[in-house]
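User: Sequence recovery, please. Input:
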């Protein structure tokens, strides 16, 4: 529920974001380690971690793609229309025309509402291919908001990550105006927690995870070039 902060001094948004992060931490005590085990297994098995988000959720997929501190084998299933057609039946499937999911891979699907058609279609396609699905969504989303009756993303994930949202995405209200969405930031934080825990798990098994370094770091560019060569032909650059 949004908190009315009209006339409130201080740092209302950062405080609200901290509250949502706290709820997400409590809600994912079991699911984050479970998701990390899936990702660690995919990396160890030389598979690909696919990531898809529709609309603003695509920012989360792009955040962990080809950047310092994230694993190299991430492939964004890119939506060039940025969610414009996310409610159109069949659109999600068209985005997979050049994607070949396998059981060695996994798919992370990000959708705040968890009810739009495109993310659900992408998740269903992965499940049909035997690819584990990690759903990152608002578990408490109201069934009354379903745009694809009978299906919710949280019902399709092998592991479900709850972004801790309650009600509207805007965490605050100034009078009648809702401001300060949190779902994108919290989703990115949860996904990074999964990646970090996967890297830790791999290290415990004596496996050095393929993690990008900062280009400004000494040897960083050369290290990153080697990673890109390792996955050459298997990963496509997205805009």
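Assistant: Recovered sequence (239 residues):
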């Amino acid at each position: 529920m949004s908190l009315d902060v009209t006339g409130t001094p201080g740092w209302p948004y950062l405080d609200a974001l901290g509250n949502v992060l706290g709820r997400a931490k409590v809600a994912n005590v079991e699911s984050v380690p479970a998701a990390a085990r899936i990702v660690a297994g995919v990396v160890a098995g030389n598979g690909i971690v696919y990531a898809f988000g529709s609309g603003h959720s695509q920012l989360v997929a792009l955040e962990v793609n080809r950047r310092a501190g994230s694993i190299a084998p991430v492939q964004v299933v890119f939506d060039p229309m940025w969610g414009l057609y996310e409610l159109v039946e069949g659109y999600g499937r068209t985005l997979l025309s050049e994607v070949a999911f396998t059981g060695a891979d996994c798919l992370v699907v990000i959708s705040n509402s968890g009810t739009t058609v495109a993310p659900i279609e992408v998740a269903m396609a992965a499940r049909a291919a035997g690819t584990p699905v990690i759903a990152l969504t608002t578990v408490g989303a109201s069934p009354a908001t379903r745009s694809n009756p009978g299906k919710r993303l949280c019902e399709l994930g092998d592991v479900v990550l709850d972004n801790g949202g309650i009600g509207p995405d805007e965490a605050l209200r100034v009078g009648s105006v809702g401001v300060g969405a949190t779902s994108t930031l919290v989703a990115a934080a949860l996904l990074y927690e999964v990646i970090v825990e996967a890297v830790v798990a791999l290290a415990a098994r004596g496996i050095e995870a393929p993690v990008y370094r900062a280009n400004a770091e000494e040897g960083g560019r050369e290290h990153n070039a080697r990673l890109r060569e390792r996955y050459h032909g298997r990963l496509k650059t997205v805009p």
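The helical segments are 12-27, 31-44, 58-63, 91-94, 117-128, 183-204, 220-230.
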